[in-house]
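User: I'm curious what two different proteins look like when written out as structure tokens. Can you demonstrate?

Assistant: Sure. I'll show them one after the other, since each token string lines up with its own sequence. Here's the first protein:
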Amino acid sequence: MAKIKVVTIGRHYCAGGSSIGKLVAEKLGVKCYDREIIDMSAQVSGIPMTEIKKYEEAVLNPLKTPINLFSKGKDIPITERIFAAETQVILDLVAKEDCVIVGRCADFILKNRVKTLNVFINASYEKRQQCAMEEHNIPYEEVEARLKKYDKKRADYYNANTNKKWGEMSSYDMCLDSGKLGYEMCAEIIAQTVKMSK
């Protein structure tokens, strides 16, 4: 088996994907990129951070409208410019180093480019509800709406920009339930899989 160079992590909202990504990176001695990709995308594209945060993960389909990051013209939607910027950042990162990337269709972007382990982190509604309230300080009465909103946003974005289905087992190499296994065990399983690929 060829060595796995990059771990990509898709995740349900409040299932701990970002935390698990950081733990995996620590175990492997590499960097984890999550929200940092927004900062880098702002730098390479010239699009203000506020605009990227506002439009990031909005639905678009670059498969139907391939664009170049450096294309000029106001007719190119900002969502497509952001996707192009994030794509460029991700490709630049993996060209320089092994790493862990959370979200942003990284599994699709890196397909056939480098050896990846594509992971999806899920958890029961109850566990995610608990995480939302305890780790994100979301009031109980807002939790259900927030979980549905962000899951739908991620699913719509992923499904529109890849030829796979967000959260479906066949779309990933590995699916882990963080509610049952815990963050540490999920991270250990992922890290050991990467180490065994050497």
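Here's a second, unrelated protein for contrast:
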Amino acid sequence: MEKQNALYEYNLRIGDSALVLAQRLSEWSGHGPILEEDIAMSNMALDLIGHARGFLTYAGQVEGKGRSEDDLAYFRDVRAYKNRMLVEMPNGDFAVTMMRSLLFSAFAYLHFRGLIKSNDETISGLAEKSLKEITYHLRHTSQWVIRLGDGTDESHQRVQNAANDLWSYTDELFEMNEVDEYLIQEGIAFDLKNLRAEWDQLIEEVFSKATLAVPVVGYKSKGGMNGFHTEYLGFLLAEMQSLPRSMPDAKW
């Protein structure tokens, strides 16, 4: 495998996951349960767009075909997206949204913390900047999951159902392939399997305070980083990409 191709794919994974989750969170704008939380989710979406822009810009530079972050965001089809499937799951109710963000933020927090040590200065710098913001996301969503889980009978059941429904997508967060193997040897990436125990501990601590049970599921989804996705991503991209595709020369 060539380093150029590996770096391109690796940056797409990180950028795509941030972009898709940002789009999901932006769907809450104007619909949050309280004004303060409406603003908080919009701000987290903006943070994630910043993460996506950084990694997609670098992906375009590495690719060497003159594509910008906008080209990669708005002019690729579903199978070209490399995001983790967890982030494309529909918002559902507020409990689902907070649970989805908690599960992903815990992973991204550990991932960015590790990537700060990357031999690639651009990836290291992007990870360091992103870590400051994802730390807030993790803290914010943890507090909400605890509040909901240790709240009323209804809020507890809703957030437990959210965990049950989303859990089958968590193993995929740690999925790797030959891209990872190559970049690990180059000192650019690291073994995601080394994060699993710490991720489990982070989530279990939150679940314990929230009086939630860690789900046990049989089926485990995987393949997002290889371009395999749920039916939800196509609808999300259709909405997100509609304006740039209908007016590709528009500037704003």
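A detail about the second structure: The mean pLDDT is 94.
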